[in-house]
Amino acid sequence: MVHVSSGFSALVFALVLGKRLGYPRERILPHNLTMVLLGAGLLWFGWFGFNGGSALAASGVAALALVNSQLAAAMGGMVWLGVDLLRYGKASALGFASGFIAGLATVTPASGFVGPMGALAIGAAAGLACYGGVMLKGKLGYDDTLDAFGVHGVGGAVGTILLGVFALRVWNPAGADGLLTGNAAFFGKQLLAVGVGIGYAVVGTFVLLKLVDAVVGLRVGAEQEHEGLDIHLHGEEGYNMGVGVSSQGRAEFFAEAETDSAAALAKLPASLA
Q: What does pTM read for this prediction?
């Protein structure tokens, strides 16, 4: 429900807030892929504490959650790469990061209640479903820059539903058997939980957004957005590139350096020059 509610809330927010200036005419890519992969790696590592720690003990269930998290993440990343290869003929590091995070988000509700083979199936479903969820923003035109809906909303919903399919009490006696063992009632409960979670998140987020918009507003004006929120709201920039930002800046820098060098040479004695 954490991923379902946050993902569908993000979708409502994106629809109400609207697109960034220039989107989608201008391609807006991650400014530093190295930082993206570093953060994704830390997230993968931290997720073991998230899922394994939910057992509240160093137990077999905790170990199961750790194994399932790893398997689903790896499978999600590989499936995402496979889809990229089929569509573009190339596999990207950013795609792999998106895929394994999709696998983690999707397997989370099921990590302590399914077997390793179930986790692999959930990871594969995550790679396919979340890839499709990310493609929706291009088809429908909303601006979900972090793919919160495509990865977390879709992944959370798919994982919660698939828990109702692959759950086995043999792995966790405190859980339940799923649809594969004939327990359609538990599967129905998972479907109901997803529907209620989505409805609560969508309605609640919309009401809160309208309230905030009426009180303080949701976004700055076009001029402030073009200038940049760091400068406009905080009076600083996260990155100061110095000279060389523009070709004009480079030209002025080298012209000044050349003038200074010529002046220095002119002051040298003829014997040294």
A: 0.83
